[in-house]
């Protein structure tokens, strides 16, 4: 694994941590505004996906030459779904089969988050923000 790939992975994780806090704050605020958890969660997720896309595009993957596009946003949003599913699955498996996690549910969430982060990064790196091969 090369150093540049590892740096991108760490940056992606840092962005994800910050966006998770933003998502929680948006959910809380939207819940106060709309008094409906489904609407509030929809709003917070859409805002979080958008912020994650914008920051990762610039900070993690250094995409500046191409203009923002809704197609790229949609590709990013859809690419994160397998990671979300992996996160949920690993969290549940860890909770049920790792004895320490049964008494410390945060550990099952951490395991799921690590697995989801890895899948989300790989999807973003290879399918959303991939660079065309260098011309000789």
From TrEMBL:
Keywords: Membrane, Transmembrane, Transmembrane helix. It is found in: Membrane. InterPro entries: GtrA_CellWall_Glycosyl, GtrA_DPMS_TM. GO terms for cellular component: plasma membrane. Residues 11-129 form the GtrA/DPMS transmembrane domain. It is a multi-pass membrane protein. The chain crosses the membrane at residues 12-31, 37-55, 76-100, 106-129. This is GtrA-like protein. It comes from the Bacteria. Belongs to the GtrA family. One of its GO terms (biological process) is polysaccharide biosynthetic process.
């Amino acid at each position: 694994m090369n150093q540049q790939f590892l740096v991108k992975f760490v940056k992606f994780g840092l962005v994800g941590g910050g966006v998770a806090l933003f998502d929680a704050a948006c959910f809380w605020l939207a819940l106060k505004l709309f008094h409906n958890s489904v609407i509030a969660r929809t709003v917070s997720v859409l805002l979080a996906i958008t912020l994650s896309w914008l920051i990762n595009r610039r900070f993690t993957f250094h995409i500046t030459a191409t203009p923002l596009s809704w197609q790229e946003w949609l590709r990013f949003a859809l690419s994160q779904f397998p990671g979300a599913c992996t996160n949920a699955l690993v969290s549940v498996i860890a909770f049920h089969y790792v004895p320490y996690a049964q008494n410390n549910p945060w550990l099952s969430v951490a395991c799921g988050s690590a697995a989801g982060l890895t899948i989300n990064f790989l999807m973003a790196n290879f399918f959303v923000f991939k660079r065309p091969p260098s011309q000789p």
